[in-house]
C-alpha cells in the first residue's frame, strides 16, 4: 500500500472553496478581487486580542515586503506558510518523490489536499515560535489579570487568532484563484508593496515620517540643509538621506527592466492543422518561469534567518561562529550573518557608517547572497516549470490538443516536444538566474519607501501578469467564442 | 482569430497554490461568501473583545 492510499481519506476531505458553476462575468471577478483586498486590509489593521499593543517586534523583519501580512495583526504570518509549503512541494515534486501525476484526476485531488494540509501545518509551525518564544508578540499583562488566567493561556489565545488569520489567507487566496482575477498570493504581495511604496513617496511629517516628495519640498524651500552637491557630504545626502535619488533611480530602473524583460521572448510559430490561415505563436518569454520562484529562494533564506532568531532567543550559550546578534535582533557575525541576504544599502555601504562589519565580511556576505540567488533562482525556475506543466512535454501536449502544429514539422507531440526542448530549458535557466541577479542588485541599491528590491521586482512583475490576464478576460468577454479556445468554459 | 490568441491561453499563470478542476465528492465545500463573512465577523469580534476587556 502506497502512502497515497493511507493518506487518501484525510487528503480528500480537506475543506475547499466551492467552484463557480459556469462562467463568472468579468465585472463579478473584479468585485470578488476587490472584496478580498478590502477584507485583507481590514484584517491587517486588527490587533490580536491579548497582545501588548505597540510592543511587538517583527519576526519577519525585512522579509515582510515579500511575505505580506502585517506585524502585530491577525495576518501576522502573511503568505509565509503558503510559500514554505510550496517550497516543500516544489522540492518533493521536482525530485519526483511524491509519485503524483498531476494529469490524473485522483492524484490532482491528493495534490490539492496535501498542499492544504501542509499549509495548515506550516501555519502552526510559523505561528508557534512567534507567540511562545517570547519577545516577538508580548502578552498584555493587564488582559491576563483581568481574565484571571495565566500568561500562557493568553498566549494560546493569541496563537489561535493568528492561526485562524493564516487559514483565512489561504482561503482568500483560493477565492481569488477560483472566483477572481489572478491569485490571492500575488494580490497580497502587490498590496503590501504598493502600500509601502505609496507611503514612501507621499507620506509627510504629520503622518510620522516624511516621504520622498515631502523631503524634496523641504530641500527646495531650504527647510532641510543638504550642503553643496560638489562636496562629499552634499553628494551623499542627495543620493541617500534625505535626497534618496539613488532609491528613486532604482525604483524606476526596476519598473523599466521588468516590463522590458517581460516582452523579450522567443516566438515559436504555430498554425492550425485544419483551419487554414489561423496562425498563432507560442511565446517562450525570457522570464519564462515568472518571478515567483524568486519568492521561494528568498523564503528559504528567510526560514534560515527565522531559525537563527529562534536559536538566539532560546539558546543563551549559542556559539559565536553560529551567530552573534545585536540588541535589535540582527545578526552581526557568524554563520547567520553571512547567509543573511543584503536588504538595504546601509547593510553593505560601509562608508555610510550604518554597519559595523568589516569590508571583507560584507564582501563574503554579498558573494553568498549572489550565489544563492543566481543558482537558487535557476534551480527553482526549473522545478517551477516542471510542476506547473510548462515544460517541453506538457506544452507539446497542450499545443497538440489545441489543434495547432509547428509549420514545417510533423504533427506529433514528440516532434513538437523536441522543438520545445531546444528553447524552454535554456530560457528557463537564463531567466531564473537573471531574475536572481536583478533581485540582489535591487536590494543592494534600495528603493523608495524601504520596500526591498525583491519585493518591488515581484510586485511589478505580478502586476504586469495581472494586466495581461485582465486583457485576456476582456477579450473573452467580447468574443464568447474565444472562451472555448482558451478552454475556460 | 487574432494572432495573439495563444499568448495567454497556453501559458500557465498559476500562483503558488495550485487548484485543479477535479474535486473529490467527499470534500467539504465552502461558499466563498461564507469565508468573507467569517473573515469580517472574526475581525469585528476580535476588535470588540479587545475594546471590552
Characterize the structure shown.
Chain A contains 18 helices and six strands. In chain A, strand 4 and strand 5 form a beta hairpin. By secondary structure, chain A is mostly helical. Chain A has two domains: 26-181, Preprotein translocase SecY subunit (Orthogonal Bundle), CATH 1.10.3370.10; 241-489, Orthogonal Bundle (Preprotein translocase SecY subunit). Chain B has helices at residues 5-9, 32-52; one strand at 29-30. Chain B is elongated. Chain B starts with a helix and ends with a helix. Chains A and B meet through strand 1, helix 2, helix 4, helix 5 and helix 6 of A and helix 1, strand 1 and helix 2 of B. Strand 1 (16-17) of chain A pairs parallel with strand 1 (29-30) of chain B, so a sheet runs across the interface.
Task: Determine the N-to-C terminus distance of chain A.
Answer: 37 Å
What value does the average pLDDT of chain B take? 75
- What's the SSE pattern of chain B? HEH
Strand order of the largest sheet of chain A: 3-2-6
Question: How many distinct helices of chain B?
Answer: 2
Strand content of chain B: under 5%
Portion of residues within helices of chain A: 55-70%
How many angstroms separate the termini of chain B? 64 Å
Helix content of chain B: 40-55%
Amino acid at each position: 500500500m502506497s502512502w497515497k492510499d493511507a493518506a487518501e481519506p484525510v487528503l480528500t476531505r480537506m475543506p475547499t472553496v466551492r467552484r463557480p458553476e459556469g462562467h463568472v462575468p468579468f465585472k463579478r471577478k473584479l468585485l470578488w478581487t476587490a472584496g478580498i483586498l478590502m477584507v485583507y486590509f481590514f484584517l491587517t489593521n486588527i490587533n490580536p486580542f491579548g497582545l501588548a499593543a505597540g510592543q511587538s517586534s517583527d519576526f519577519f523583519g525585512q522579509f515582510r515586503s515579500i511575505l505580506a501580512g502585517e506585524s502585530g495583526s491577525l495576518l501576522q504570518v502573511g503568505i509565509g506558510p503558503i510559500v514554505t509549503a510550496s517550497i516543500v512541494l516544489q522540492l518533493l515534486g521536482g525530485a519526483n518523490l511524491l509519485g503524483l501525476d498531476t494529469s490524473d484526476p485522483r492524484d490532482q485531488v491528493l495534490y490539492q489536499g496535501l498542499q492544504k494540509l501542509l499549509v495548515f501545518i506550516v501555519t502552526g509551525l510559523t505561528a508557534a515560535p512567534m507567540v511562545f518564544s517570547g519577545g516577538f508578540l508580548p502578552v498584555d499583562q493587564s488582559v491576563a489579570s483581568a481574565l484571571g488566567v495565566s500568561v500562557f493561556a493568553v498566549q494560546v489565545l493569541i496563537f489561535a487568532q493568528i492561526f485562524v488569520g493564516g487559514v483565512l489567507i489561504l482561503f482568500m487566496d483560493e477565492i481569488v484563484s477560483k472566483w477572481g482575477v489572478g491569485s490571492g498570493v500575488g494580490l497580497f504581495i502587490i498590496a503590501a508593496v504598493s502600500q509601502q511604496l505609496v507611503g514612501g513617496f507621499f507620506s509627510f511629517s504629520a503622518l510620522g515620517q516624511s516621504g520622498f516628495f515631502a523631503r524634496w519640498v523641504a530641500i527646495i524651500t531650504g527647510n532641510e540643509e543638504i550642503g553643496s552637491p560638489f562636496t562629499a557630504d552634499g553628494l551623499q545626502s542627495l543620493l541617500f538621506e534625505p535626497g534618496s535619488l539613488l532609491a528613486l533611480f532604482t525604483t524606476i530602473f526596476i519598473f523599466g527592466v521588468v516590463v522590458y524583460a517581460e516582452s523579450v521572448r522567443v516566438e515559436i510559430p504555430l498554425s492550425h492543422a485544419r483551419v487554414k490561415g489561423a496562425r498563432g505563436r507560442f511565446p517562450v518569454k525570457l522570464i519564462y518561469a515568472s518571478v515567483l520562484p524568486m519568492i521561494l529562494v528568498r523564503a528559504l533564506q528567510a526560514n534560515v534567518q527565522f531559525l537563527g532568531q529562534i536559536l538566539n532567543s532560546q539558546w543563551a550559550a549559542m556559539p559565536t561562529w553560529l551567530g552573534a546578534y545585536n540588541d535589535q535582533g540582527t545578526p552581526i557575525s557568524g554563520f547567520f550573518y553571512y547567509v543573511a541576504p543584503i536588504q538595504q544599502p546601509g547593510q553593505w555601504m560601509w562608508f555610510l557608517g550604518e554597519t559595523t562589519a568589516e569590508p571583507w565580511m560584507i564582501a563574503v556576505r554579498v558573494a553568498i547572497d549572489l550565489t544563492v540567488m543566481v543558482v537558487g533562482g535557476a534551480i527553482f525556475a526549473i522545478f517551477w516549470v516542471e510542476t506547473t506543466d510548462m515544460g517541453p512535454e506538457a506544452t507539446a501536449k497542450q499545443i497538440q490538443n489545441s489543434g495547432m502544429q509547428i509549420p514545417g514539422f510533423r504533427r506529433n507531440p514528440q516532434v513538437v516536444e523536441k522543438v520545445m526542448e531546444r528553447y524552454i530549458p535554456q530560457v528557463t535557466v537564463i531567466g531564473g538566474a537573471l531574475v536572481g541577479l536583478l533581485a540582489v542588485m535591487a536590494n543592494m541599491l534600495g528603493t523608495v519607501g524601504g520596500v526591498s528590491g525583491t519585493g518591488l521586482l515581484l510586485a511589478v512583475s505580478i502586476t504586469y501578469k495581472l494586466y495581461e490576464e485582465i486583457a485576456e478576460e476582456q477579450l473573452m468577454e467580447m468574443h464568447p467564442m474565444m472562451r472555448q479556445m482558451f478552454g475556460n468554459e | 482569430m487574432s494572432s495573439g490568441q495563444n499568448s495567454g491561453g497556453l501559458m500557465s499563470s498559476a500562483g503558488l497554490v495550485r487548484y485543479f478542476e477535479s474535486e473529490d465528492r467527499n470534500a467539504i465545500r465552502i461558499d466563498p461568501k461564507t469565508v468573507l463573512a467569517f473573515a469580517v465577523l472574526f475581525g469585528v469580534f476580535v476588535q470588540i473583545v479587545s475594546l471590552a476587556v
